[in-house]
Amino acid sequence: MEAIRVILVDDHQILREGIEYMLKDEPSLQLVGQATNGQELIQLLPHTPVDVVLMDLHMPEMDGFETAQYMKANFPAVRILVLSMMNSEKLAARLLDEGVLGYVLKTIGREELVYAIRKVASGQVYIGTDITMRLFKKASPKAFRMEIEPGELSVDLSKREVEVLELISEGYSNHEIAEKLCVSKRTIDSHRQNLIEKTRTKNTASLIRYAIGKGIIS
């Protein structure tokens, strides 16, 4: 499988360098270009084959909204994933209307960022865990029932698994959880996988939905 080609657009050099470092060892992704705003991106697109544009929302000269509108009209095959500081479901919805497929916060870890890029590259919508959590807290858990039998009992989770689950729901990466709990990242990787298998969920977002619906976390 060919690597997903990514262009990074953000006016903060330190953030671009940080994301470049995060993605450099991910074989499924290839960073093929960088820009500081929408105008620079538009200059890159005609001669830089790209699958996903990972871009900031608030940029000088040409911001994320203008850029999304331009790309929808001129480069509709290129997927857009917005990386923002604003935890707003309304803003995410507005961007989806502009043709954006993904919206995540700059506080996410490497694992979720890679996952989000893959989802968007495949043409699927992805909204970051932090934003979906806001929606879950506003809605009744009944609105987010998992695909389980009505009479099925809640799974039996250990105290440590619940602790890991709570930290996952707060948006921490496996590496950050490992540091907080003073264990190895491999141990947290194992806990996360066990949680997904026990709950029969498919990913982090559905795992959190399950935990909220079952009252495991608030």
Brief descriptors of the model:
218 residues, alpha/beta, Rossmann fold, Arc Repressor Mutant, subunit A, 2 domains, six-stranded parallel beta sheet, 10 helices, 6 strands, 48% helix, 13% strand, elongated
Describe this structure in words.
- The protein is of the alpha/beta class.
- It folds into two domains: 4-128, Response regulator (Rossmann fold, 3-Layer(aba) Sandwich); 139-213, Orthogonal Bundle (Arc Repressor Mutant, subunit A).
- 48% of the residues lie in helices and 13% in strands.
- A six-stranded parallel sheet has the order 2-1-3-4-5-6, with helices on both faces.
- Helix 7 crosses helix 9 and helix 8 crosses helix 9 (185-199).
- The radius of gyration is 18 Å and the shape is elongated.
